[in-house]
Amino acid sequence: MLIPYETLLQLPKETLVNLIREYLLGQVEDGSFSSLDEQELSQAIVQCQQALKQGKLKLEYSEDDESFAIRSADQIAQQQD
């Protein structure tokens, strides 16, 4: 289930930042980023917030394992095909 951006705005700011931080750390692990220091992380969080607002990234809730994940809109569209 996709969570609308408007709903994300109702979350405590810290919760949204933690979701984004988890997403970014996963990107480091799979090689999308070489490393992430605190300054880069702060910049990446802002960029992710903008991408969520623009719909390039989406927050998805998995009912199967009761977890949340940020994924690219393209990745979600491919999976639905």
UniProtKB/TrEMBL annotation:
* Protein origin, superkingdom: Bacteria
Q: Which InterPro entries match?
A: UPF0270, YehU-like_sf
For this protein, the record's Pfam families field holds: UPF0270 (PF06794)
Which family is this protein grouped under? Belongs to the UPF0270 family.
Protein's name in the database:
YheU family protein
Q: Which organism is it from?
A: Shewanella morhuae
